[in-house]
Every structure is written in C-alpha cells, then in structure tokens.
Specification:
This protein is mostly helical. It has a domain at 88-264: Growth Hormone, Chain: A (Up-down Bundle). The protein has helices at residues 2-22, 25-47, 77-83, 90-94, 97-125, 131-155, 161-179, 185-214, 219-236, 238-248, 252-257, 260-264. The two termini are 25 Å apart. Residues 66-75 and 77-82 have low confidence and may be disordered.
Length: 265
C-alpha cells in the first residue's frame, strides 16, 4: 500500500512545478480537481470492494473452508494463532498508558514532515536552491522510499516496532540537522536520500504498531483516532515554521527547535 503513495510522490511534485510555471496555480488546482472528479472517483466507486467477504474471499485470498469456526477445529496452525491473538476494543485501549504515548509519537512524523514539505522551497530558496531542485527532493525521497518501505516490511517482522519507531525519530533528528547545511546540488541529493530512507521506515512502522499492540479486530476504530491525531499534527506542522519566518526572517532557529518533537517521541 505504501508503494502506491511513493509511486505518485515520485513524479507529481515535478509535474506540479511544471504546471505552475507553465500556466499558474489556479490552472493546476483545476487540473487536479477535474482528475479527482472524472477519473479517481469513478475508479474508486466501481472497482473498490468494501471487504473480501463481499466477493467470496477472505484476507490474503484464503478459502472460506479453512477459516476456523467456533464449533470446529482447524488443521491450519496459522489460523489457530490468528484466532487466539489478543484484541482490545478502543475503550480498552484508551485505558492503557501506552495508547496515549503511541498516539503522541504517531503525531510527530506527521508534524515534522508536513512542516518541512510545505516550507521546503522557501527554506532552500534562502540557500540559492531553485524551486525545481527543491521539488526534486520530494521525487528523490519517494524513489528511495520504494525499496526501503519494501525492505522495512520484512525487517519489522523480526524487530520490535517500538525500537523501529525510535530509529525513525533518531532519523528525523538527523534530517532536521542535515537540512541546515543543504546549499548545493550534491547536498540536495544527500538530504533527499536520507529523508526518503527514514520516511520509508516510518510509513511501515506506523501501520504496524497499532495491530501489534492492540490486535486487528477493532483496528478500524483505533486507527480512526490515530489518523485524526496525525491529521491534527500535519495541520499544525507548517505553523511554527511560518511564524518563525515572520518573526526572525529565516528558518535556522525553528529547525533546531523542532528537534524537540522527535526527541520527545
């Protein structure tokens, strides 16, 4: 699933910059609005299924015949393990201290990454980096995220997700520090590679940590709360950088201040 997001991020930033420079921002908005209505909405409506059972399947394409039922014993050990996993409801999860800690931690990457993405052209513009080269960072980041997210899925089956998330936060600190020294084409490439590497790990880790801690039965309601908090974090992310630019005329100080967020995570 994460690969689809990285695929679109690989070329869309450069395409957007080209459209804005060729026409203007309003035309670019109209193009994407039209595509959403005329192309993506029908595709979703006609080709997306609510759940596998609606087309006679189970998750991972399993046959209904091998799914364990309460009054029968399955010979499939993997299914026995699934049926006996610990599952918490949202109400039960909210009573644990860990739930709130993970919730806070999940908001940090959204806050940091969205803040950097919104202000990236402005931050690098101060160092003489063109908008096209700044957008290239997002493309490079997505291209690196392809193999990293694929690899992370296998690694996280063998490494505890809390350790992996701590690794992601350490990486975000390194990204914020490295951004302070981006002032050439080479440093743009190095920064894009580093950012993409840690975002690739982050995408998979944040998807896995919730079912690892609280099971899959009530994952929808638990992830709904997590997604809401992440959206709030993403919405607030650009604000401190914008306020800092207005107050101090630059981004140097606020980039150092923002290190406190992944450090807390």
């Amino acid at each position: 699933m994460a690969l689809g997001g990285f695929a679109s991020s690989s070329f869309i930033p450069l395409f957007n910059v080209w459209m804005i420079q060729t026409w203007d921002l309003r035309v670019t908005w109209w193009v994407w609005g039209g595509l959403l209505i005329l192309l993506f909405t029908p595709l979703t409506y006609y080709f997306t299924v609510n759940k596998p059972e609606e087309v006679g399947l189970y998750p991972d394409g399993d046959s209904p015949k091998i799914i364990k039922s309460p009054d029968s014993i399955s010979t499939n050990k993997a299914k026995d393990i699934v049926d006996t996993e610990i599952n918490l409801t949202l109400a039960e999860a909210k009573k644990t201290r860990t739930f709130w800690f993970i919730l806070l931690a999940a908001a940090v990457p959204a806050l940091v990454n969205t803040g950097l993405t919104f202000h990236l052209i402005s931050i690098l513009g101060e160092r003489g980096i063109s908008p096209l080269n700044s957008a290239f960072i997002l493309t490079l980041m997505a291209l690196v995220g392809f193999p990293v997210s694929f690899l992370a899925g296998f690694i996280l089956e063998r490494v505890k997700t809390n350790y992996a998330l701590a690794f992601v936060f350490l990486g975000e600190i390194m990204v914020l520090l490295t951004l302070q020294f981006v002032d050439s084409q080479l440093s743009v490439i190095v920064f894009g590679l580093m950012w993409g590497f840690f975002v690739g790990f982050e995408q998979i880790t944040l998807n896995l940590i919730w079912p690892n801690y609280y099971g899959r039965r009530d994952l929808g309601s638990i992830r709904a709360i997590a997604s809401s908090v992440m959206i709030i974090g993403a919405a607030l992310g650009p604000l401190p950088l914008g306020i800092a630019f207005d107050q101090w005329g630059g981004y140097t100080e606020i980039l150092y201040v923002m290190i406190a967020f992944p450090l807390l995570g």
